[in-house]
């Protein structure tokens, strides 16, 4: 569990925000810490089964900067599967990461 936690939340700010959210006494504080986590964290998403055309198994996702190692998030201006996995990990919606058409 500890190594999984360290792998998932690489940045110190992300780890701090996650722990603060876990112990937040109010829903408002929880929401604020989760937003801080979303802004600061680098998520590491590992594909368990390689998908056709994919040669990489581990991808770093930065939600705030709208970056993913696969490049689809930047190119298509909508969440790739790694972004959706990162959003699911912290319980936020992925739809706000879709640019308006
Ligand atoms: Zn991706």
UniProtKB/TrEMBL annotation:
Residues 59-91 form the SWIM-type domain. Signal peptide: none annotated. The keyword Hydrolase does not apply. Keywords: Metal-binding, Zinc, Zinc-finger. The keyword Zinc-finger applies. It holds the Pfam family SWIM. It comes from the Eukaryota. This is SWIM-type domain-containing protein. It comes from Stylosanthes scabra. The lineage of its organism: Eukaryota, Viridiplantae, Streptophyta, Embryophyta, Tracheophyta.
